[in-house]
Design a protein that fits this description.
The protein has about 230 residues and is α/β, with parallel strands linked by helices. It contains 11 helices and 6 strands.
């Protein structure tokens, strides 16, 4: 972080749909040096509108909000107002939340147990061109990088309109993993795994896991063992 970035007062908008949480964050930020809160939004639509009106340096963005969620709001803000950076401030640190937010253009990602100093550090880090990530999020990114290097690459064009994550779930089913094991490997909940399985079954017309295994082999997603 440069000394200039440290000295600059960052103009911040807070976006969170829970009034008590939003007001608490605004109050906390008001006590911190180097931060000026210039607006607060109750959902993603309002956040995008506020950015257009007040041109903040940074938006502290919750993810799960009505009307327009934090990922979509981040995508729109970065596309329409590239001078404004986004730092996610959320309860969730699972892959289903983290990676879409970063892909949408968020430069920072904190969970709501972050302290005031950590929030200030993340805000000024993104203003100086660095990433504002909590230590836990940095570890998760490194873990994912390692997993990506060791896991077979997903085919660039998945069959029958399957998403990348649905294809990952299919491959793990074909390897014999149950829902809990799939959830642990992908760092998502068992309920999320079930949702992906229901979606891929609906898209492919499959009825059970045995059919899913045959489908994966039939589509060339999994190769039979040599020998």
């Amino acid at each position: 972080m440069t000394e200039e970035a440290e000295r600059k007062t960052a103009r911040v908008v807070v976006a969170d749909d829970q009034t008590v949480v939003r007001e608490g964050i605004v109050m906390l930020l008001g006590l911190l040096p180097g931060i000026e809160v210039v607006g607060a939004a109750g959902d993603g639509e309002e956040a995008v509108r506020l950015v257009a009106e007040v041109a903040p340096d940074v938006v502290l963005m919750d993810l799960r909000m009505p009307r327009c969620d934090g990922v979509e709001a981040t995508r729109r803000i970065r596309a329409e107002h590239p001078g404004t950076q986004v730092v996610v401030l959320t309860t969730y640190a699972d892959d289903e939340s983290l990676f879409p937010a970063l892909a949408a253009g968020a430069r920072g990602y904190l969970t709501k147990d972050a302290g005031g100093e950590e929030i200030v550090r993340a805000v000024h880090s993104v203003l100086s061109g660095d990433a504002g990530l909590s230590p836990g999020i940095q570890r998760r990114l490194l873990e994912r990088l390692t997993e990506t290097e060791t896991r077979p690459a997903t085919p660039p064009e998945a069959p029958d309109g399957l998403t990348v994550r649905e294809t990952e779930v299919l491959l793990l089913i074909a390897e014999g993993f149950n829902n809990q094991e799939i959830g642990r490997r992908l760092h998502v909940s068992t309920a999320t795994v079930k949702t992906h399985i229901n979606n891929l079954f609906a898209k492919t017309g499959l009825k059970d896991r045995a059919q899913a295994v045959r489908y994966a082999y039939g589509k060339g997603l999994v190769r039979p063992p040599a020998g």
